[in-house]
Structures are given as structure tokens and as C-alpha cells.
Amino acid sequence: MEIGIRSFFLALIATVMSFSLLAQQNMQQDVGPQRAQQEAPQSVIEPSVERRDVNEANIDSENFEFGMLVGVISIEDFSSSMLVGARAAYHVNEDFFVEATYGQAEGGETSFEVLSGGAPFLTDEEREYRYYNLSLGYNLNGETFLTDRWVFNSATYLTLGAGSTEFGGDERFTLTLGAGYRLLLTDFFALHINMKNHLFNSELIGEEKTTQNIEYGLGATFFF
């Protein structure tokens, strides 16, 4: 009886050991390919980036700017006239600048003068329109892309100033509100597009009122 029980346990132990060895061999076979995949060197994809040369004009190190302007000014009640003038500016920093401008034009005829054909309101000398003002400006700096390779520094700017206007034989205190766009073609040469509104009181054709005289201009300036 004891021999039979002993034989049974020996057979059971042999069977369990056989299954354990077989399971261990199967695990080693499964881990082998995974380890080979992990140890295999992975290929690196190099990005292909095409670099391009960009030509960008910077403002010269000098802070003074001077130039000429030409445009059209609409003198309230006296039609529109050609305007010529000069502009000088000092750039305090890249954001703020101080600007002085001078311009002159010749006032046209009022609608009443044109329709009635009567005596003119003003003499030729009194029709001379002149102004000068001093303004504080603020730059909104940016860049202008003309092509893929040509990039220019540019700025949209706002101005607020005061000065004087001579017209109709009188001189009037004038408030000016303006906006413009500057494009730097080189490090010392710039082109401007600007608009200004000159506000002053006048009673040339009746009761005193605040007139709005809007100017549109083009300019070219040099930094030095």
C-alpha cells in the first residue's frame, strides 16, 4: 500500500516539473523577439528645411528725421487745394516721437462765389493757407512683406498736436489729429502716407464755427 502511494506522489511530482519546464521554455521564446525589437536601432528622420535669405531694412542709429510732403487739403467752405510742406521729427525711442510740420496751400472759391459770380470773399493774398504745428506721435511698429525675400520695417503711427493756421487774413489756434504709415526702404530712407485733420474756429462766411480741414499727403524722409 505504501509503495503504491509513494509511486503516485513521485509520478505527480514528475508531471508538475515537466509542465514547469515546458512553460519556462515557452516564455523565453516569447520574450526573445520582443527584446530583439527593443534592442534593434531605430531610424531617425532628419527634417528637410529649406532656409531662405531675408533682406530687412532697419532704422538708422540716428534719431532725427527730415523730409518733404505733398498732398491735398480740403479747406472747409473753400474747396480742395494742392498742399506742399516739410516735416521734421525726433524719435525719443522706438515708440514715441516729436514731430514738427509746416504746410501751405491756396484756398479756392466757395460754392456761393461759384454760383453767384459776384465779388469774391477773399483777396488773392488772403487765400494763402499756411499752417505749422508741433505733435506728439506714437508708433505701432511692424513689418511689411512685399515678397518672400523682401521684408521692410514699417509702422502705423498716431499724432496729436497743436499749432497755428493763417487763412483769410487771420491767424487761428489749431488742433491737429493725425494718423500715418511709414515704410523704411533702407536704413535711412522712408516713405510716408498720412492723414491729418486741422481744427480751428472761423467766421469767414458767417457765424463763428469750428472748421475741419482734412489733409491727405505723401512724404519722403531721411534719417540722420
Give a written overview of the molecule.
The chain is of the alpha+beta class and 224 residues long. It folds into two domains: 1-35; 56-223, Porin. The protein is 20% helix and 52% strand. The protein is built from two helices and nine strands; from the N terminus they run αββββαβββββ. The longest helix is centred in the N-terminal third of the chain and has 38 residues, at 2-39. The chain is elongated, with a radius of gyration of 42 Å.
Distinctive features:
52% strand; alpha+beta; 224 residues; elongated; 2 helices; 2 domains; Porin; eight-stranded antiparallel barrel; 20% helix
What's the layout of helices and strands?
Blueprint: H1 2-39, E1 55-57, E2 64-74, E3 80-91, E4 96-106, H2 111-116, E5 128-145, E6 150-167, E7 170-184, E8 189-202, E9 209-223
Parallel strand pairs: 1-6
Antiparallel strand pairs: 2-3, 2-9, 3-4, 4-5, 5-6, 6-7, 7-8, 8-9
Q: What's this model, at a glance?
A:
The chain has helices at 2-39, 111-116, and strands spanning 55-57, 64-74, 80-91, 96-106, 128-145, 150-167, 170-184, 189-202, 209-223.
Instruction: Give the proportion of residues in helices.
Output: 10-25%
Shape estimate: elongated
Tally of distinct domains: 2
Number of helices: 2
Indicate the CATH topology of the largest domain: Porin
Strand elements, count: 9
Query: Architecture of the largest domain, CATH level 2?
Result: Beta Barrel
What distance separates the N and C termini? 120 Å
Helix-strand string: HEEEEHEEEEE
Largest sheet: 8 strands, antiparallel, barrel
CATH class division of the largest domain = Mainly Beta
**Strand order across the largest sheet:** 2-3-4-5-6-7-8-9
Rg over alpha carbons? 42 Å
β content, as a range? over 45%
Low-confidence stretches: none
